[in-house]
Amino acid sequence: MNGARLRQPCSALFKPDVDWHHNAYLTRAQSSWYLRADGYRRAAESLVQSCKTFYDRNTLIYSVGFLYRHYIELALKDIIINGNKVVVRPHPIPKIRHPLDNLWFICRSIITERSLASVGEVRSMERYILEFSQFDANSEGFRFPETKDGQLSLPSHADAVSLRGLAKAMEELAQLLR
Fold it and tell me: Which of 118, 153, 132 is nearest to 76 (CA)?
């Protein structure tokens, strides 16, 4: 293949349908961090609800975990971006890595500085976010079976995960982050 051919847009994959009811409009909210975050959360919820078999649960947990983690990351970045519009000292968003704990510490300072949540709500958010951060520190645990140095990507002590429990916790977190 030549390089010019690769740069051409793929008209078969990303083109509108003649029936507009089947189209999704990318430009409607292209810069909305929370809209994208909510899409990842809703996709994870849909996958959890679709799990009917043992095989479903054992294959979809990785996608579900990734989607929930990415939801958290984008939701926290949305808080930082919008919070930077009203705080005294704006906070930079870490761009190189996907550190949930670092993002959370920035968000926590914005939330507390602006009194956007109660102390109990902040503690609940922190508990969920830091636990997720410890489980998948760099956003690779649910995406790859091994790290770059050949180690298991997820904690070895985590043998079984309740999809129902994870979904319930993420819904509680979503209510707090809204």
Answer: 132
Q: Which long-range contacts (CB under 8 A, 24 or more apart) does 40-49 make?
A: 40/67, 40/68, 40/70, 40/71, 40/74, 41/67, 41/68, 41/71, 41/75, 41/170, 41/174, 43/67, 44/68, 44/71, 44/167, 44/170, 45/167, 45/170, 45/171, 48/163, 48/164, 48/166, 48/167
**CA-CA distance, 36 to 101, in Å (whole number)?**
20
* Tens of pLDDT, residues 57-98: 999 999 999 999 999 999 999 999 888 887 677 777 777 666
Res 138: pLDDT: 83
Q: Strand, coil or helix: what is 146?
A: strand
Q: How far apart are CA 18 and CA 158, in angstroms?
A: 47
Q: Which residues pair with 146 in a beta bridge?
A: 152
State which amino acid sits at residue 78.
D
Task: State mean pLDDT over 52-56.
Answer: 97
Phi, psi of 146 (to 5 degrees): -130, 155
pTM of the entire structure?
Answer: 0.87
* Per-residue model confidence (pLDDT) at position 14: 86
